[in-house]
Amino acid sequence: MKWLILFCLVFFVYLDVSSQNFTNISVKASPDAEKCMNYKVNLSGTGGYANTIKDLENIEKTLENININATISISFGNIVALLFIPTAPFKSVTLHASDSQAGLKNVSNTTVSVELPEELNLGPTNMIVFSNLKLPETNKSDPGALFEVYDRRMIILSVKGKNISGLRQPVNITMKFNQNIIQTQRPSCHFLNFSTNNFSTDGCHTIWTHDQSNVTCSCDHFTYFGVLMVSASSGGDAVLSKKDMEILSYITIIGCSFSLVALVITVLLFITNRTLREDLSMNIHINLVIALILLNLHFLPSQAVAAHPSTWLCFYMALALHYSLLATFTWMALEGFHLYLLLVKIFNISVSRYIFKLSVVGWGVPAVIVSVVVIIDRSFYGHVLLDKSNHDDTKICYISNEIVKVVTTTGLFTMVFLFNMTMFMVTVKRVLNVGYNKEV
């Protein structure tokens, strides 16, 4: 059956691809070709949910089997497709589609736009299939019916002969709404998982607020995408309005600013007081204070830097923010270690060059971790969404790789927490033993 459709497409659709000077061709199919296509992909809704799923797979396979040497646009009834042949070197590109046409440039009445990241690194031998299609009116009594998809619209993205997944730079699919969204609902980006025949949100997050007329699905893979309308509070993930997000942002900035001022005052008091400077404990405290100052200094302007076009500036900000956070954790651990030594040595620490050795650990360990991350892949530092759960598009400069983020920050924090808890329990036991010995 697949070869029948391929034959119909070749026979009834004329493609003038002899010229190499064009980038986009709009292809019109004859009624016979359209009938042939509809015979292959039954989008009338009479075949049921399971058959519609199979038809979607057939659409992708059929489009991928079309042999072309230039970018073309195809329209068949409810299906609009763009077969895109990229040029080398591959750069970020945006594809557009309406209900009647698709192209590399903005088309009239655009309903869908897809931004492909530079990370794809595709060339003339790779054909990108981008399809905008309307699903059939499905029986709503069907428990797996596709009527839940907003506007019955599905977006197909694939690369011929290549699986695209695990992207660090996500592909952004923006769909326009043709009606207002009620307050009790929110759009949620899903993809169709053919192994389970169900929708899933894995690898995708939704960028949207109630005052927007479109929704952006930011995903790390190519597949079949759709927007489902769900309850605004479903999954414990209530949507915050843009105004609420701004208020929370101001609260964060004000709180961090007050913290920064207090920390700077603490450093000034330490510098001007000789007694404090000679105290070992105060020297450790002040190193923790300096780490917190660095953390605030690099966190507060991070959002503004992320909006700046300079990638090197964002790289520095992300690296410095990561380093200062790790330094804060490390000095927290050294605080616990110092407290343990105070009680074990009975306030008489006689370690040679004690503060210097602690400083090597406190500032050196974070430097080693950050250096290893940069050596592995410097692109791990870059633009990231500040809060994915609230579907806000605010970005900061930080760690873009989730695994690196979890291992180096959450992992180190867990180790510090367990270490300090151990020091705390040992310290409490020591104090209790001293009290018991005095009573005896």
Characterization of the model:
There is one protein chain. The protein is α+β, with helices and mostly antiparallel strands. It has 2 domains: 2-236, Chondroitinase Ac, Chain A, domain 3 (Sandwich), CATH 2.60.220.50; 242-439, Rhopdopsin 7-helix transmembrane proteins, CATH 1.20.1070.10. It is 44% helix and 20% strand. The chain has helices at 2-12, 31-40, 48-64, 242-272, 274-278, 280-299, 302-306, 311-344, 354-376, 402-439; strands at 25-28, 72-76, 79-84, 93-97, 102-103, 112-116, 128-134, 153-159, 171-176, 185-193, 198-200, 204-207, 214-219, 224-231, 381-385, 395-399. It has an 8-stranded mixed beta sheet with strand order 1-2-3-7-8-14-10-11, covered by helices on one side. Helix 4 runs antiparallel to helix 6 (280-299). The model is unreliable at 1-46 and 139-147 (pLDDT under 50). Residues 1-19 form the signal peptide. One of its GO terms (biological process) is adenylate cyclase-activating G protein-coupled receptor signaling pathway. It is a multi-pass membrane protein. Its main location: membrane.
In short:
The chain is an alpha+beta fold and 440 residues long. It has helices at residues 2-12, 31-40, 48-64, 242-272, 274-278, 280-299, 302-306, 311-344, 354-376, 402-439, and strands at residues 25-28, 72-76, 79-84, 93-97, 102-103, 112-116, 128-134, 153-159, 171-176, 185-193, 198-200, 204-207, 214-219, 224-231, 381-385, 395-399.
